[in-house]
């Protein structure tokens, strides 16, 4: 299927590994030119070597810095002359007992995922208006279903979902599409670390550990980063032209609420 993304320009944050890397690879495979951002320059450069030469801008930065999102947007516009897509994927939050989580951990959770994304959206908005472009926010099912061990992440994700709806409302007027994806349990390095720990604790293989953990979540299996990436490519394309403010739960059926 031709998604009509050839030569369009996209920005992917948190692109150095996991879901972000898969998104960058999928979009590049559709012919997009990309700015990839994360804190690790080494990992970004490794990614860039696997993508079409000359079509990738590596931008190592910490989006918790209030000025960093503007610099990322400016660098992308200067390099490519336009911006058609912003994928806000950066941001990991601390799990743990609510009573043990510190103010610093709460502030850090909001600083990158929510405020970093908000500032990227604000800085990119005029470019997206000019291009009639789109935003895809990678959020997470914890924003829809609360969990005692995921208080920070759930709160941040809920705010991200609301931000998606607010910007989608503005986007109707300005011609910018804004949608979100809620990944469930995706087989990234973070999840694989939890699987390995579970396997050691129970004296079983990692495959059996993954199967047991998925069964406990009442899903058939864990998802793959590429499954999220393919959905991003679809949302960025003209084939999703009537999706505005949509939230896709890509979680194997884990979210059972309306």
Describe it:
By secondary structure, this protein is an alpha/beta fold. It has two domains: 9-186 and 224-250, NAD(P)-binding Rossmann-like Domain (Rossmann fold), CATH 3.40.50; 187-222, no CATH class. 48% of the residues lie in helices and 14% in strands. The protein is built from eight helices and seven strands. It has a seven-stranded parallel sheet, with helices on both faces. Helix 2 links the parallel strand 2 (33-38) and strand 3 (56-60). The two termini are 31 Å apart.
Concise synopsis of the structure shown:
The chain has 258 residues and is an alpha/beta fold. Helix content is 48%, strand content 14%.
Compressed to H and E, one letter per element, the order equals EHEHEHEHEHEHHHE
Number of strands: 7
Domain count: the total is 2
- In round numbers, the mean pLDDT is 96
At CATH level 3, the topology of the largest domain is: Rossmann fold
The largest pleated sheet is described as: 7 strands, parallel
Helix content: 40-55%
Please give the alpha-carbon distance between the first and last residues.
31 Å
- Radius of gyration, taken over Cα atoms and rounded to an integer in Å: 18 Å
How many H/I helices? 8
Within the largest sheet, what's the order of strands? Answer: 3-2-1-4-5-6-7
Name the structural class. alpha/beta
Shape: globular
Say which CATH homologous superfamily of the largest domain is assigned. NAD(P)-binding Rossmann-like Domain
CATH architecture of the largest domain: 3-Layer(aba) Sandwich
CATH structural class of the largest domain = Alpha Beta
Low-pLDDT regions: none
- Beta strand %: 5-15%
């Amino acid at each position: 299927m031709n998604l009509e993304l050839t030569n369009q320009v996209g920005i992917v944050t948190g692109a150095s590994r996991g879901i972000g890397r898969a998104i960058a690879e999928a979009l590049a495979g559709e012919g997009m030119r990309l700015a990839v951002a994360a804190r690790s320059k080494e990992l970004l450069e490794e990614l860039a070597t696997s993508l079409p030469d000359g079509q990738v801008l590596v931008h190592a930065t910490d989006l918790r810095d209030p000025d960093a999102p503007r610099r990322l947007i400016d660098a992308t516009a200067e390099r490519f002359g336009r911006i058609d897509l912003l994928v806000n994927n950066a941001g990991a939050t601390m799990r743990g007992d609510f009573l043990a989580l510190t103010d610093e951990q709460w502030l850090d959770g909001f600083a990158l995922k929510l405020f970093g994304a908000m500032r990227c959206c604000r800085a990119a908005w005029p470019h997206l208006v000019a291009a009639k472009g789109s935003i895809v926010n990678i959020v997470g099912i914890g924003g829809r279903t609360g969990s005692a061990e995921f208080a920070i992440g759930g709160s941040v994700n809920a705010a991200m979902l609301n931000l998606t709806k607010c910007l989608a409302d503005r986007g109707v007027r300005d011609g910018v599409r804004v949608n979100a994806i809620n990944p469930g349990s995706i087989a990234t390095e973070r999840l694989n670390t939890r699987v390995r720990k579970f396997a050691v604790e129970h004296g079983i293989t990692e495959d059996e550990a993954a199967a047991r953990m998925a069964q406990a979540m009442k899903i058939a299996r864990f998802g793959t980063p590429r499954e999220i990436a393919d959905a991003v490519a679809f949302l960025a394309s003209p084939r999703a032209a009537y999706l505005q403010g949509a939230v896709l739960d890509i979680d194997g059926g884990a979210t059972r609420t309306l």
